[in-house]
Amino acid sequence: MIIHASMRTDIPAFYSEWFTNRIREGYVRVRNPYDPLQVTEYSLDPEVVDLIVFCSKNPVPMLKYMDLLKSYRTYWYITITPYEADIEPGLFKTIVSKRKIIEAFLQISEIVGEEHIGWRYDPIFIDDKYTVKYHLEQFEGISAALQGYTKNCVISFLDLYQKVKRNFPEVKMVSKEQRKYLGERMTRIATEHKMILRPCGEGTELAAFGADCNGCMTQQIYENAIHMSLDMPKKQFLRKECACYLGNDIGAYNSCPHMCKYCYANYDEKSVRLNRINHNPKSAFLIGDDMPNDKVQKSWINGQISLNGFFI
């Protein structure tokens, strides 16, 4: 079983205490975002969790809990972008500079190994401040800082989801010409710094420049990290452009205080504030607690046999 923590929110940044309480308790409960009374309970027994995948813009709060994760195989995707407080306001309330995030990346890499960590530089958008030239300069600088600490770099260009259009109405799609220009040069920079560039959900247009367009959360990446083969079931797609495997996401939408303008997981700031009020670090749920009419489906794993793959 693969646990994803999380594509819906930043658990390491804001909910590290809750997550470590779940590790100690040995299970976590997750509401179906489309049917809240449908609840899945996942075992967090190291014997049945094949991998925990973390996605974070700020893993600093998790550093003090790394010893608790020694019994687990983990993979970390840490997002480091060149944007400032006008785009990522919540991040700048908790982190003085992106340098601290880079330092945390290096620390985690030293603990888990470079095959267990990847860098995400996404999403990419272009405007008068964040120009093509600016992106290439920043990408070069971050690549140099991370050389030797990861083999994977993921990029993607901004998608205009409905939530993005509402919260970031002035942003525009990156043109095909800009995508190809940036993709070619970013592939070259990544290669120079001993990384494989992996476009996320961008089709195969950058393959001609040497980018690996097979996906960023793939069976091969996970197997390389854990040094084991996985008998994974049929792929479940997040979207038609996505070639990655999905795990069991234990996060919740509308709960990330980073409040990045390009975020697809938050509806608005009010929803995030309300959910933060309803967060209890001792609850089995990230947001809220048990409700009288909950229908709980427990993991099918019985603790005797570890099944490689996902429960959907």
UniProtKB/TrEMBL annotation:
Any Pfam family hit: DUF1848
Lineage top rank: taxon: Bacteria
Protein name: DUF1848 domain-containing protein
